[in-house]
Design brief:
This protein is α/β, with parallel strands linked by helices. Helices cover 30% and strands 20% of the residues. The protein is built from 15 helices and 11 strands. The protein has helices at 9-18, 54-66, 73-80, 105-109, 113-116, 126-131, 141-149, 169-176, 188-193, 227-233, 248-251, 269-279, 313-319, 331-340, 354-357, and strands at residues 91-96, 101-103, 119-124, 159-163, 180-185, 201-203, 214-220, 237-243, 280-293, 322-329, 358-366. The strands form 2 sheets. It has an 8-stranded mixed beta sheet, sandwiched between helices. It has a 3-stranded antiparallel beta sheet with strand order 2-1-3. α8 links the parallel β4 (159-163) and β5 (180-185). The chain starts with 8 loop residues before the first helix and ends with a strand. The relative contact order is 0.17.
């Protein structure tokens, strides 16, 4: 079966206004914790070097704007790590404009001449490298804040899986905090964009940090459907994240929808949920976080707007999970993130009311020890 994963076009239509480019559990009080000690943050008086490129400067500005909304030491370190992101330059990829399939230069070279002739060259600059089609990687602040609130306070030496990762930026940030990160996604666009050897492997620790280096692995294909993907992804994860991929509207829509707006996991619900459970260490967390536009008016159904968990509590519990939270609203927090990232203005600088146009739900599960 073919997985049509889309953090889709109509969500892009809403989030093109909200995010510029954005498209696969009970929230604690958002008060500053007095016990948080951010050992990796530089002294307040230190002067940071100016980021080298416009895209890196944009990310640094976003990190500064988000800092008032970072509660935990984990998310403060995540934002601080932005200053360690490397320049990416421009990449060349190739697209079959009929099938919308992308190819790297090496993949193109391996094709027969007739197939190569049907490909168009695409230049992907550094902005695309870090923002891809889905917006700022720093929107992962909220899923990580929720993980921290449920005990994942440090990523040093931890194994992290992101199902439907959508972009490399947040993966590099987590790896620079000492995590061993695996990103899973079937999108050929990402496979072509991140095709250079330097895109994977060891990631140096964030600057001015005594942390050990982390690692980054990208796995492009259908997990857990395909055995080679299962082998590449591995297991024993401390944390599994999935943002804007495991939505009820995508996986189990309540009404018939366009296949391009569906996520076909390729296996039964029971097999997929059990694969998530088996991939975690005992005590490991799964955080599903979905940002959604407002549901369609007048009885319509927009699958992108149905950000609930695809499965009920009972399905998770049958697989062995303990459900810590399910379909818990995070609206106020994601709107704060959205304002910091500029989602409240159109490209023409017209205001957008995020209170009526953007919503978030999350689910947190744990594999018992």
């Amino acid at each position: 079966m073919i997985c049509h994963r889309l953090k889709p076009a109509s969500l892009l239509a809403v989030f093109a206004l909200l995010l510029g480019l954005l498209a696969g559990c009970a929230a604690p009080p958002r008060t500053q914790r007095p016990d948080v000690i951010v050992r990796d943050a530089p002294p307040p008086t230190s002067v940071q070097p100016e980021p080298a490129t416009p895209t890196l400067r944009k990310l640094a500005d976003e990190a500064a704007a988000l800092r008032p909304f970072a509660v935990s030491g984990l998310t403060l370190r995540f934002l601080d790590a932005v200053r360690s992101l490397p320049p990416a330059g421009t990449r060349l990829a190739y697209i079959n404009e009929t099938t919308r399939e992308y190819f790297s230069a090496a993949e193109r070279a391996a094709l027969p001449e007739a197939q190569r002739a049907r490909l168009a060259e695409v230049s992907l600059d550094e902005y695309r490298y870090y923002y891809t089609k889905y917006g700022s990687p720093l929107a992962y602040l909220r899923p990580l804040e929720i993980a921290a609130a449920h005990g994942m306070t440090d990523l040093q030496g931890r194994r992290v899986l992101d199902f439907g990762y959508g972009g490399i930026g947040h993966l590099r940030l987590m790896a620079s905090l000492g995590a061993h990160v695996v990103g899973v996604d079937p999108d050929s666009y990402l496979d072509a964009l991140y095709s250079e050897p330097r895109d994977q492997g060891t990631v140096a620790a964030m600057r001015e940090s005594r942390r050990a280096s982390g690692t980054l692995t990208l796995a492009h294909g259908y997990w857990p459907k395909d055995a080679p993907m299962v082998a590449r992804v591995g297991g024993a994860f401390d944390l599994i994240l999935s943002k804007n991929t495991l939505k009820k509207g995508y996986v189990k829509p309540e009404r018939r929808t366009d296949r391009r707006q569906q996520v076909n996991l390729g296996v039964t619900d029971e097999v997929f949920i059990k694969a998530l459970y088996d991939a975690l260490k005992p005590g490991g967390l799964l955080v599903i976080y979905n940002v959604s536009p407002r549901q369609a008016d007048k009885g319509g159904y927009n699958p992108q707007a149905d950000g609930r968990s695809p499965w009920p509590r009972e399905s998770y519990e049958r697989a062995g999970f303990q459900v810590l939270a399910i379909n818990t609203a995070d609206d106020e927090a994601i709107r704060n993130v959205g304002r910091a990232l500029g989602w409240d203005r159109t490209a023409n600088n017209e205001p957008i009311d995020l209170n009526t146009s953007i919503f978030a739900l999350y689910t947190v599960l744990v594999r018992p020890r």
